[in-house]
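Worked example 3 (structure in, sequence out).
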């Protein structure tokens, strides 16, 4: 039998046309296009690109956006079910439960035709933000806010969360966040989803596998971990002792390190710029300065002292962006999932199109 690779490190499990990562040069492409070129487009266009394999023309984009907007509403019964639970600690538990409910109310749930799969994909992309905003408001006994047709995917989410139309920069930040979170090759949640899809399970079930896997603190849960850490550090003067204490106790620093990138994650650079601009608009540079101090001290400790290629990953400056958008840490992983759902759907379709059940072997000891 072949040599076992712990954590499947370096193992190539499948071919994909959806994304490409060069972890040494720090390059990420969706469908052959660098994220730096995609990040100024609307999220809807990037979602279309991931799911359909090409960028939409003007007519295709307006039709796709219209379909998304038409499917943003969620079933009133679903809200009633969700109100029964307390998802205060992590909204992802609520989102996972809500997607199960959505599947339950979708008559096409167990139909696998291309049309049924397309309809389910639209519903998933469209409803994720509505569910996350509704869950958050329900936890304060507040009524959900109806989606606003005039707003982009990201801006509408912020609006449904607070009832306030976001500023242009806040709307841009949310759109960019969803784009940068949308896809990342065979990350753990996407791999879990592809395993489910490879058994020919339905899209909702596969997406729920993705959600369950995204939750962990070593994956998407790290974004909440960074937000908690920014609170814990409590002042810029404390950064050095906080970091050294963690490293001495051999604790992981959330938002740093990556299985594939051995240089700065290209998404982190874009998030950092958005965070800096938000800090200026807010007239408050505290979160940005704190994060930059953490980055500087950890560069010294990881790279200069230990010689390890551990740099900020996607979760580090995205957490700073969330701080400026006044997003509670409990929502961080769910918002990550709102972006990632497009990539998950693309992987589901790719798996269905050329399927072989994913079933590796274990080495018996
Ligand atoms: N803090 C402290 N030490 C670290 C960190 C970190 N964030 N990341 C890696 N290391 C050390 C680790 O202790 C190990 O040291 P040694 O060789 O002495 O045992 C070495 O670097 C290799 O780390 P690893 O955990 O074995 O590497 P991996 O490829 O299995 O794990 C990782 C990658 C992302 C899970 C890890 O870097 C980590 O736990 N980071 C913190 C959590 C995090 O930010 N996760 C988000 C990942 S990226 C986006 C996403 O998936 O959402």
């Amino acid at each position: 039998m072949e040599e076992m690779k712990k954590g499947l490190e370096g193992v190539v499990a499948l071919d994909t046309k959806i994304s490409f990562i060069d972890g040494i040069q720090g390059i990420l492409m969706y469908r052959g296009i660098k994220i730096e070129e995609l990040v100024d487009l609307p999220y809807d266009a990037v979602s279309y690109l991931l799911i359909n394999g090409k960028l939409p023309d003007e007519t295709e984009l307006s039709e796709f956006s219209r379909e998304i907007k038409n499917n943003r509403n969620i079933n009133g019964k679903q809200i009633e079910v969700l109100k029964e639970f307390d998802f205060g600690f992590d909204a992802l538990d609520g989102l996972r439960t809500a997607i199960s409910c959505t599947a339950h109310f979708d008559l096409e749930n167990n139909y696998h035709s291309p049309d049924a799969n397309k309809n389910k994909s639209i519903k998933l992309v469209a409803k994720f933000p509505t569910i996350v905003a509704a869950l958050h408001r329900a936890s304060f006994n507040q009524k959900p806010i109806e989606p606003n047709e005039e707003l982009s995917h990201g801006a509408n989410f912020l609006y449904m969360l607070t009832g306030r139309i976001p500023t242009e920069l806040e709307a841009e930040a949310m759109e960019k966040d969803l784009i940068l979170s949308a896809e990342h090759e065979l990350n753990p949640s996407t791999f879990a989803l592809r395993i489910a899809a490879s058994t020919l399970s339905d899209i909702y079930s596969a997406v729920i596998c993705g959600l369950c896997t995204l939750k962990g603190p070593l994956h998407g849960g790290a974004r909440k971990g960074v937000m908690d850490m920014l609170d814990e550090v409590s002042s810029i003067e404390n950064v050095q002792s906080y970091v050294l204490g963690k490293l001495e106790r051999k604790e992981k620093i959330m938002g740093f390190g990556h299985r594939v990138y051995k240089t700065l994650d290209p998404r982190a650079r874009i998030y950092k710029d958005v965070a800096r601009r938000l800090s200026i608009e807010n007239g408050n540079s505290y979160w940005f300065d704190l994060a930059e101090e953490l980055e500087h001290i950890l560069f010294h400790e990881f790279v200069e002292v230990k010689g390890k290629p551990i740099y900020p990953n996607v979760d580090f400056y995205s957490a700073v962006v969330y701080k400026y958008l006044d997003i509670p840490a409990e929502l961080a992983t769910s918002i990550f999932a709102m972006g990632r759902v497009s990539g998950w759907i693309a992987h589901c379709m790719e798996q269905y199109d050329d399927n072989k059940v994913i079933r590796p072997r274990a080495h018996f000891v």
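Notes: The chain has two domains: 27-215+335-353, 222-324. Strands lie at 19-22, 27-30, 33-34.
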